[in-house]
Write a structure and sequence with these properties.
Length: 414
């Protein structure tokens, strides 16, 4: 197949959507398909263009068998709703010349649009129409729903326009995929027929993310005794998770010199979290930057307990991608989730961690006390088994590839 992918995030970004789009593209190319990607300069989650790409304009590079077209965009130092909108539209403006150039080249069989940003779908949809290609929309976040529920956009008329545009793009797509049952329910509720839907969860490379003992973790590098307890939050430090609750919970353990709270990541909330910890005099709260992928197993092995936190308003609109690595590493997560959401159901049904009420310091403190005073071995065993059975990178990507081949084969037959 000839596959064209549109997405604002891509490798070498270490977390979030870019990581998965990069791995998917590279995997498809390794199967012999011709793969091209139109994306931005890497900037996430630091919200800062990587040094290797600063000062460059439109560039094309070959990365692991994939042709990657990178376009310039505006990256705000401080992220707000208005600046994020400008950021996304600057990407669309930057990619317009590249989009025109692709129209003049040999047709791609399939166009995969990665959302968010959802309005990137107009470029993907118009290309598919003009070139007679099949359009697949892959939903990582329900962006418009999240903007409404998180209060990022309050103007009702604007929201109505955005929802109408989203519905148009979904109905223009030949297939729509997403990463959880909760998202599937919301997408089908927008009028999308189930025959168009593909379940395509985020995965983990269970051969790369291994079970490691604490002696091979980052504890020695960070000066943390092997017998001490570590509560780890690793990933994007954004606004969807309500991460200030970690600082509030750490205050309840301020008399425990053997309990360390480690926050490892980058994002818009990073400076605020550091300031809150400093103001409270919490010496047991440590901050570290994102670790390279080859250190991920060692990072995850550092923790006794992992934190997977979300706000109530983000329930089933986003699915925490960090959970896949935690489970593959045999970790025990404390998870804030509302009953009835996909996240709650997965953790509860398979007994993978400790569930707590979102946005509650008392609930988080109680969950941590419970986790730090019990044998977590059964959780760790079940976590690894779940990852191997349901989150295998090879299995999920093979199934997605089969869906793409079926879509194109059906088109040729009809």
């Amino acid at each position: 197949m000839r596959i064209l992918i549109f997405g604002i995030n891509y490798s070498p970004e270490l977390t979030g959507i870019g990581k998965y789009t990069g791995e998917m593209s590279q995997w498809l190319a390794a199967q012999g398909h011709t793969v091209a990607v139109v994306t931005a300069k890497p900037y996430y989650p630091e919200w800062k263009v990587h040094d290797a790409y600063k000062g460059t304009g439109w560039i094309t590079e070959q990365v692991d068998g994939v042709t990657v077209h990178r376009v310039p965009l505006y990256v705000p130092r401080e992220v707000s709703a208005k600046k994020r909108i400008l950021h996304e539209f600057s990407f669309l403006g930057g990619m317009f010349p590249k989009w025109l150039g692709l129209l003049l080249k040999k047709k791609y069989d399939v166009v995969i649009n990665i959302t968010p940003p959802f309005h990137l779908g107009f470029f993907a949809s118009f290309y598919a129409k003009l070139k007679g290609a099949k359009l697949v929309t892959h939903v990582q976040d329900l962006q418009v729903d999240a903007a409404k529920e998180l209060g990022m956009i309050g103007n009702k008329r604007l929201l109505d326009v955005l929802f109408k545009a989203e519905r148009y793009l979904l109905h223009q797509s030949h297939r729509i995929s997403s990463i959880s049952l909760g998202m599937k329910k919301k997408i089908l509720a927008k009028g999308v027929p189930e025959t168009k839907y593909i379940m395509f969860p985020n995965w983990v490379d269970e051969k790369t993310i291994n079970l490691l003992p604490k002696s091979r973790s980052l504890r020695s590098e960070w000066g943390i005794p092997l017998d001490d307890k570590v509560v780890l939050y690793a990933g994007n430090l954004g606004e969807k998770q309500g991460l200030e609750i970690i600082i509030d919970a750490a205050k309840q353990f301020s008399d425990r010199t053997d309990v360390h709270f480690v926050i490892c990541g980058s994002g818009g909330a990073s400076d605020r979290l550091k300031a809150l910890a400093a103001q409270a005099g919490l010496r047991q709260v440590r901050f570290y930057p994102l670790q390279p992928y080859e250190k991920l197993s060692a990072l995850l092995a550092t923790a006794d307990v992992h934190l997977v936190l979300q706000k109530k308003s983000a329930s089933d609109l986003v699915m925490p991608s960090k959970l896949t690595g935690i489970l593959a590493a045999g970790g025990c997560p404390v998870v804030s989730a509302i009953q009835g959401t996909s996240l709650h159901e997965v953790i509860s049904e398979h007994e993978l961690g400790i569930l707590i009420e979102p946005e509650s310091v008392n609930a988080l403190t109680t969950g941590l006390q419970q986790a730090l005073h019990m044998d977590l071995t059964p959780f760790r065993v079940r976590a690894r088994q779940y990852a191997e059975r349901f989150l295998s990178k090879e299995q999920l990507l093979k199934e997605f590839e089969r869906n793409l081949i079926t879509l194109i084969t059906y088109e040729k037959q009809t």
